[in-house]
Amino acid sequence: MSSLRSSNNLKQQCQQRNAILSEKRKGRRELMLASQRIVSVIEDESPRLSPRGYEERYRDIYEQLNENKLEEKQFNKVLEQIYNNSSRQNHPPFTEMFMCGVIYKLTQQYILMNIHQKQMFLGIIQNITGFDSIYNNELIKYNIFQILMDSLNENELIGLGCGCLCNLLLDSPLILKYSMENQLPQRLLKVFETCQKIPYSLIWLIRCISSKVHDEKILTSFLPLTIRLLTIPEDKTKTTAFVILGEIVTNNINVISNNYLITLLRFINFSCEVNDSAITAALRLLRNITSQVYCEEIEELCLNLFLKNNDYSSLTTRRLILDCVNNVSDASKSFSEKLFKSNTFCDLPSKTLSVMTLFPLKRKWL
Fold first, then answer.
1. Which residue from 32, 50, 182, 207 puts its CA 20 to 30 A from 15's CA?
2. What is the mean pLDDT of each run of 10 residues along the chain (366 residues)?
3. Residue 59 neighbours by CB distance under 10 Å
């Protein structure tokens, strides 16, 4: 990044990389902005500058960072300028070159930063990894992983550190490898137990790990804390907990023992009874379970849900219930007989019957 010190060849380098970077961006922007990304939204961003305006501003910021003796107020101002421009979705191409140089300088100074400055730095990392994966190789070279692991030791930095790790794990197999080698799941469990207020990014990071690993020991360790999340009344947290459990079940059904299974069925049933916002995630979890295992408790729950199908106005909810019923009917002849011996079908409204034509029950006893 020493070439950035020269203003004469900066524009030439940027123009050379323009085609490469624009090609990398093509078709990836929507993926980078998917719901799994964690990005700090900056409401007071300055109006978009022209490329020349960006070049002048960023060159000035970079030159300030090159000064080894910045006062605290000056350094804070520089960090704020970088942060306020880090969440833009469509930077000019040379912005990435500038940002890589800035990150390199900041990682060198990280150990000397106070808590507020570290928060600003991690916010920058969270934003740029939330929008683009093209920084990942540079970040790994600059030892960002160790910085993020160390952030888990500071209560004020846990949320931002988890957000950065979440974004990186989505793109970088190498970061996932480092995470497993450095026992990140165990670190998260410890943070979960000791943290007074659980940041949502920590929960989201657990989801990312659960979706990418199949190790029975790791997935089993996530089960108790995820089930605890189901007791939190906040809809967003409860929904995410069901999603995490769905990832765990999909990756390794063996982690769910009988005790855990019965507990999960109770939470699913409660969510369906109150018809809360987590019902879709709960029923998707039940669909994953019924596609792989069978027990009497599952049969009883699915039968009860089917009998109450009239109560749900959501077509998605009805379809998921019928999926679960279909799975159980494949595993149990007696279940299918119970369905058709009851007078349920006579009472079903037309909407439910229309859904059933799309998802017909397999009558295995015939």
1. 32
2. 46 59 51 48 43 64 75 88 72 66 87 94 89 79 91 93 91 87 90 86 91 89 90 89 93 87 95 90 95 91 88 88 90 77 55 46 36
3. 15
